[in-house]
Write a structure and sequence with these properties.
The structure holds 2 protein chains of 2 kinds. Chain A is α+β, with helices and mostly antiparallel strands. Chain A has 11 helices and 12 strands. In chain A, about 55% of the residues lie in helices and about 20% in strands. In chain B, a hairpin with a 6-residue loop joins strand 1 and strand 2. The chains are: A alpha+beta, B alpha/beta.
Chain lengths: ~400, ~230
Amino acid sequence: MNLAFRDIRYHRGRFILTSIGLGLLLGVVMSMGGIYRGLFADALSISNATRADLWVVQKETSGPFAAISRIPEDIRYRIAAVPGVAEASPLSFETIQIERGGKPFRFFLVGYDLNGFGGPPVIIAGRGIRQKHYEMVVAQGMKMGLGEKVRLGLHDYTVVGITGKMVSSGGDPAAYVSLADAQEIQFKSDNDAIRNQRERIAARLAGLPTLSPPQTKFLEQNIAALTESTHTVNTVVARLAPGANLQEVQERIGHWNHFRAISDGEQTQILTKGMIEKARMQLGLFRIILLVISAVIISLIIYTSTIDKLRVIATLKLIGAQNRVIIGMILQQSLLMGVIAYAIGYGIISLTYDRFPRRVELVAGDLQTLFVIVIVICTVSSFVGIRKALRVEPAEALGG
Amino acid sequence: MYAVEVERLSKIYGRGETAVTAIADASLQVKPGELVAILGPSGSGKTTLLTAIGLINEPTRGRVILDGTTIADDGWLPEIDLKRVRREKIGFIFQAHNLIPFLTALENVMVALEINDLTKREARARAVELLEALNLGHRLATYPSFLSGGESQRVAIARALANRPKVILADEPTAALDTENGKNVMALLKKLAVENRSAILVVTHDHRMVEGFDRIFDVRDGRIMGER
Ligand SMILES: Nc1ncnc2c1ncn2[C@@H]1O[C@H](COP(=O)(O)OP(=O)(O)O)[C@@H](O)[C@H]1O
Ligand SMILES: [Mg+2]
């Protein structure tokens, strides 16, 4: 006869409530783990989807995600010409905030060369971008439908395709447009701004007494063209030919003025160590605190339920029950509670993780580790109850 | 051979100034199938004597011999597995309320059998048989909190009898019952002593409940004053 189970059956209301409470706690612990994994997956989603071997960025920066990097677009040709490089493609990134439904909405705009790489990794609805202008592929997180339009800068962009769960390292959903469009959105100011800027340049030049009017005109046009130039990108990504030596290529580009070549491994480090390390530690600490709280709660519950049963335990001893019967009852109860709470926590998380605002990624290994931790906590927690139970004298069953 | 032999048993609670001599120099013998009473006023040491025989309470001096085995000789003998002797040779009946509240009547009896290594099936069969014999066939699945006092006490008796012990120790088994139920329980114990050839020792302070015993030991101030 399983005494642990009979006791639970008799006190099922109390047991179920306790298990639900603990289950919620364990659910939070699980979601913390899931959020951490999600942070990781989010941080790396664009960099992983690009499948680049090298990220060429502005010298002395850790761009393009962790720091601002601006390099001329045409460096792509020089990079492509480096021995060992199979292909090179420019990319631009910009976080954009628009107004949607009266609320600010942020997303991450990726501009890519339609003939290069770094575009949407998969198309789950609609099609990829075909025309050079005003077409857009959005991540699911943008919550936009095919054919929907959004105004960015000077033009309307039409959603032609939907890609998966692409997000920026900040968790904002991604949208893809052609590089030319992205450059226009990112670097080209609207007409008023351009007119103001031209007037300012003209006024300054006119103030220089050493310039003749034709010289002034010439300079004015050239400076305007330079400042209005949109042929800037944030990075040029490169893939190497099979057998090429990554380090050699990296060093070679690094020797050029103004550029740094970051390997994909380094980029991952920058994104994970640098950008989400603190969040990770924060979550880790929080998980530990919650686990400690769970342990304390389980110990308390087991202890009080043992105290409630002192008379039962004395009676069992009186009729000659072996210690294993009594230890088994307490330990099994503790384990059963842990297992049920774990199942409840898992159930809650499985039903809700899709609805979290940021990605929650449940990893089997993490869940298994947590299960083992819960079992250990339950076992250790039951020791306090068991210690108490073993000290009970059978004579205590006799008192009125 | 006696089922229970007690020789010059003494029990002193505490030490020094606060020491209380609960039992002094008590000797008695009970044969299998005998129903004996230990009668005395409250505080006279009846429970102490019974629990010393029941291996719950370690005697300070003297000997306790159960079914031919010496259990205590100026204290418990270290080689004796007390729980095992309790499990196999002794059945306890106390005032109500020592049934396990989260087990049904049937399970309360079965648990005593299962800790004695009977299979679940054997335990169930014997428990059902016992409870039916005690007119509790309709209460098998009832929890103790829903049983009347007399029913609870009969379940406790069934549990005490389950392992067919050589010795049954009952401490005021009728105290929580009305006169009629008390008489029924006593009659039942008498019948069982004869049928099972168990030695049954019943502690009581109630002079009205002394009919039907084979012998009565009068206890006062920790001493056995006489035998009737
Ligand atoms: N655990 C104990 N510690 C100290 N004194 C006790 C203890 N149990 C009983 N006594 C004392 O021993 C004496 C006999 O008690 P008990 O055997 O319970 O008598 P009865 O069952 O006849 O009422 C009483 O004076 C009681 O106060
Ligand atoms: Mg008493």
